[in-house]
Amino acid sequence: TWTIDKFVSMAGSLSCDLNGDSKMDENDMYGFCIWQDSMMGMVNAAGEKFATINNDGNIELTLNTEKTVNMLDKYIPLAYDRNLTYSIYHSKDAIENMFANDQVMFYTRYLCIIKKYRNMDTDFGLLPYPKYDESQSSYYHTVAPYGCSFICVPMVVEDFEMTGAVLEAMAYESVDTVTKAYYDITLEGKTLRDNESTEVLDIILKTRVFDIGQFYQIGPYNERIMDLFRKNDKDFASMYTKHEPAALKLIGEINEAFAAIT
Q1: In 10 A of CB 121, how many CB atoms?
Q2: Percent of the chain scored above 70 by pLDDT?
Q3: pLDDT category, 29, cuts 50, 70, 90?
């Protein structure tokens, strides 16, 4: 089973000052290249969510759990170690080149990045985000809230139900057209290089997590948890406590707004 412990152990085993200048930079070899969004990804990978919809149909804050804290406690020491991990904040371009130049074992990034490596000489594979532990029944993968598209309907539209029905039908049909073409042609056909990666891609797409806490920017904890990484701050508890009142206030406003229209 691919777990956070196994991932940290493997990524932490590789570090090499290739040019012998006694400093680690983009000219050297690392076990891991990190993108800031992986902080959110690890929370969801553990089966946790920033916020969830309860049985009453209301949003509730669910970020501060034992599993969230433990997952970050395992991940942060590796993520913050500049001898083992090369960060996006050093150089985005350098990271992309380093992976292509065989200087990195693992690289966390959006799925769409793999098309940049279609012409890479060395074979590479796709892996799911690691599980919290071996007892976890499934892998989980964050659908990032930043790159999603929304359709706005003008106020002058008279038949909102018909508009909604048409948009829903178009979305439904796109699963067998647009989505299938992207999967079959762009990902599987042109980018992935082995059957194992294709199987992993299936796992990733079947275990997507749409975290309402991230999409509604509650806290906004998705930004604040990335701030921990940006500042090399390991104090999740203080960060959570500081922003909890604002998060609960926003949740209350959202729940009230939905209650008013149901």
Answers
A1: 8
A2: 99
A3: very high
pTM: 0.89
| C-alpha–C-alpha distance, residues 72 and 40, integer Å | 10
Phi/psi region, residue 94 (left: phi>0; alpha: psi -120 to 50; beta: rest), is: alpha
Residue 147: which domain range?
4-260
Task: Tell me, letter by letter, the H, E, C secondary structure of the chain.
Answer: CCEHHHHHHHHCCCEECCCCCCCCCCCCEEEEEECCCHHHHHHHHCCCCCEEECCCCCEEECCCCHHHHHHHHHHHHHHHCCCCEEECCCCHHHHHHHHHCCCEEEECCCHHHHHHHCCCCCCCCCCCCCECCCCCCCCCEECCCCCCCCCCCCCCCCCHHHHHHHHHHHHHHHCCCHHHHHHHHHHHHCCCCCHHHHHHHHHHHHCEECCHHHHCCCCCHHHHHHHHHHCCCCCHHHHHHHHHHHHHHHHHHHHHHHHHCC
Q: What is the pLDDT of residue 195?
A: 84
How many distinct structural domains can be found in the chain?
A: 1
What tens digit of pLDDT does each residue of 187-215 get?
777 778 788 888 998 999 999 999 999 99
pLDDT in tens, 8-28: 999 999 999 999 999 999 999
